[in-house]
Amino acid sequence: MKENQTDACDACGVSAEIGYIISEGDDVAEVTIQANSPEAIAARFEQYLDLAKSINPAVKHDFDSQHIKNDALTIKMQFECSAEKLIFELRSRSLNNA
């Protein structure tokens, strides 16, 4: 009989099955950047790109300043594995709040 392994968070008590959070093939992070100008969006993207490259220098992205509309742009960043994407998403929270 196969037993599912669950771990509970010590801080909040929430539990999840290991493997649910990190899924194979889930290696693309989407980031929406909003700013007052295309230049500000490009500068903000550089911050996200620097963070992504600190996790994996081979990260790929689809940033194109020609696609900026209404002072916002959604970009995709592809990592080599799901764990790198998860690390990026956790670390980028500090950029989202800045």
From TrEMBL:
Top-rank lineage group of the source organism: Bacteria
Record Pfam families: DUF406 (PF04175)
InterPro entries given in the database record: DUF406, UPF0234-like_C
Gene3D superfamilies: 3.30.70.860
PANTHER family, sorted: UPF0381 PROTEIN YFCZ-RELATED
Similarity section: Belongs to the UPF0381 family.
Protein name per its UniProtKB record: DUF406 family protein
